[in-house]
Specification:
The protein has about 600 residues and is mainly alpha-helical. It has helices spanning about 1-15, 15-35, 45-50, 65-75, 75-85, 90-120, 120-135, 135-140, 150-165, 165-180, 180-195, 210-235, 245-250, 270-275, 285-295, 300-325, 335-350, 365-385, 390-415, 440-450, 465-470, 485-505, 510-520, 535, 545-550, and strands at about 40, 195-200, 205, 430, 435, 455-460, 475, 525, 570-575, 575-580.
Length: about 600
């Protein structure tokens, strides 16, 4: 009986794909476990993209809410259809935590299959899988269940079928990309077009059959129609038109210390370097690796880790190119076309941004995949040659060290339980795997849920981020949705932001009450630390251009009226946070 069980177990685990699937399942569950088991742990972007979908459960929520209108307009149709059709059986918030598990498995499995197909080696596939599935950067990209979560799986699936010459499947995937994450559609569309052509006998020839050409043409047309129609049909006068580059350049919100640092645009060479080697090391996980090494009593500066990762990647790239040239072999042309498409779109986006979004989005998904393929292929080709074993062991050991540090970092992040601390512009605990912990304010959220459904709440914008998600209450303004991309919307956000902070730091309770009356605000949520002189003097009250403007109207004799609220007027108080009704400010 035992022998039969053992044989069955061996048969199940025999296919390498099964091992990869089980391993990626374990990693995905491990990294998403905090969110699955705790309602108040979510991906930070959930406060931008998912919160308003509670309207699918109750269409009376967030009525006439500008923030909900804006958030809905941002979402591609595929995402809206997915969440709306499933909302009858599962809460959108819960679904957003489950989706990453399946997408991590899909990305990992098909990346393994892609590398295995290219190299004809399971070893290369395993190396690529481990580099991908244990990297914090890639885990973060899959968290949240929003549009960007679909970028890697859809791009990897497209590449796999394209390189396998199953072009029908790859062309149909173009439609899915246009529905869920249009940036991958543009990259894949350009790659598909370039891949039509081959040079044979000094002539350029089209390699696809007329039927497949027609299918590609139809998929491209439908995909573009989906993108254009979404932009046209979702237009709302309250949101306005997308800004142009001239308006971006004039707006401090697009620079360092602003809401979203997009300017100046990074150089293409720098972006290529960062993204190609991100399979080994990237700017997002250097800090975490440094902390992990410190906890293991290994003191290494982050600059050393960065340089070390760069050197390993360049050596492996050189080895791969040398090996291919000697053996008169080539990388699949589809990969070269993917690289060219990404670079071209980066340059186009740099000129016309933000019309087709941000330039870095066109290299931050495609180039890391290329980087993983290069590393795994190069290392495997050297192992197969079985020459200069000492060098092979050096490269292999280096990769194993990076993978081990990745795994330790992921484990430490998941088991860490540091106390929450408020720091400027951060009212949450970041778990650094694409998840944010708001548990410290769960009592506040539970109280706010008991307020009338149509209540409007005002607070410090960053503290307001998670209130709509966990309480289903409207907020006057929050940080996540204070985005400067659309002209009319941004005008309103600017007015609201300045009005809020003028009232928040006002010495006059009558002024605050008038502010509430004018904007139909019912309750104020106050974090006492944001009123402290220490916080004000930190000069990090909010992002630019608001920070300097806020400082200009805070008087030298700073004595905010909200610090003098009587205890009996506080309807909630805990963890230096209290809630008052606007009538507490009214003269009696």
């Amino acid at each position: 009986m035992k022998q039969k069980t053992t044989n069955i177990f061996k048969k199940i685990l025999k296919p390498p794909e099964t091992i990869v699937t089980l391993a990626s399942l374990a990693i995905s569950v491990l990294t998403q476990y905090p969110a699955i088991t705790n309602k108040y742990i979510v991906n930070d972007d959930t406060n931008q993209h998912i919160w308003w979908m509670q309207q699918y459960l109750d269409n009376t929520l967030f009525k006439n809410d500008l923030l909900a209108l804006y958030a809905k307009q941002l979402q591609p149709w595929g995402l809206q259809i997915l969440y709306k059709t499933t909302s009858t059986i599962i809460n959108p918030l819960i679904l957003s935590k489950i989706i990453p598990i399946f997408l991590i498995i899909i990305s990992s499995l098909f990346l393994f299959k892609l590398i295995k197909f290219i190299t004809n080696s399971n070893t290369a596939g395993y190396i690529g899988f481990l580099l991908f599935a244990t990297n914090i950067n890639f885990i973060q990209a899959h968290s949240g269940g929003h549009a960007r979560t679909f970028a890697y799986p859809l791009l990897i699936l497209f590449l796999y079928f394209l390189i396998k010459k199953e072009s029908k499947k790859s062309y149909i995937l173009l439609l899915l990309q246009s529905l869920f994450y249009p940036i991958t559609f543009l990259i894949s569309a350009a790659t598909s077009i370039l891949n039509l052509f081959r040079i044979k006998q000094k002539r350029i020839k089209i390699i696809e059959s007329p039927k497949k050409l027609l299918l590609l043409l139809l998929c491209l047309i439908f995909g573009l129609c989906i993108l254009i129609s979404h932009q046209k049909l979702t237009y709302n006068q309250k949101i306005g038109h997308l800004i142009n580059k001239k308006e971006m350049i004039k707006n401090p919100a697009f620079y360092k210390h602003g809401r979203t640092e997009k300017l100046p645009t990074p150089s293409l060479i720098k972006e290529i370097d960062i993204n190609l080697k991100s399979a080994i090391i990237n700017k997002h996980n250097i800090e975490h690796h440094t902390k992990t090494l410190k906890s293991l009593k290994v003191q290494l500066p982050s600059s050393f880790i960065n340089i070390f990762g760069s050197c390993i990647f360049l050596i492996l790239l050189a080895l791969l190119l040398t090996s291919k040239i000697k053996n008169k072999k080539h990388l699949p042309l589809e990969l070269i076309y993917l690289f060219i498409s990404s670079i071209l779109l980066y340059e186009i986006a740099s000129v016309v941004q933000p019309k087709i979004l941000w330039p870095n989005r066109y290299v931050c998904y495609s180039l890391p995949i290329l980087g993983i393929i290069i590393i795994s292929s190069a290392l495997t080709s050297q192992i197969q040659k079985n020459q200069k074993k000492s060098k092979i062991y050096l490269y292999a050991t280096s990769i194993i060290i990076f993978i081990s540090i990745n795994l330790i970092t992921i484990l430490k992040i998941n088991i860490s339980n540091k106390p929450y601390k408020l720091i400027p512009d951060q009212f949450h605990k970041d778990l650094n795997i694409g998840l944010t912990d708001y548990s410290h304010n769960k009592d506040l959220f539970q109280f706010l849920r008991t307020l009338p459904k149509d209540a409007i709440i005002a607070s410090h914008p960053t503290l307001s981020d998670a209130i709509p998600l966990f309480t289903q209450k409207r907020v006057f303004i929050n940080h996540e949705l204070s985005q400067p991309f659309y002209e009319k919307y941004w005008e309103t956000i600017q007015k609201r932001t300045l009005a809020l902070f003028k009232a928040y730091y006002s010495n006059n309770p009558d002024y605050i009450y008038d502010f509430c009356q004018k904007n139909n605000i019912d309750y104020l949520v106050i974090h006492e630390e944001t009123l402290s002189k220490k916080y004000i003097h930190s000069r990090k009250i909010y992002f630019e251009p608001f920070n300097q403007q806020i400082e200009s109207f805070i008087h030298n004799n700073y004595q905010p009226a909200l610090m003098n609220i009587k205890q009996q007027n506080k309807v909630y108080e805990k963890n230096n946070i209290f809630v008052i009704h606007k009538n507490a400010l009214q003269k009696k």
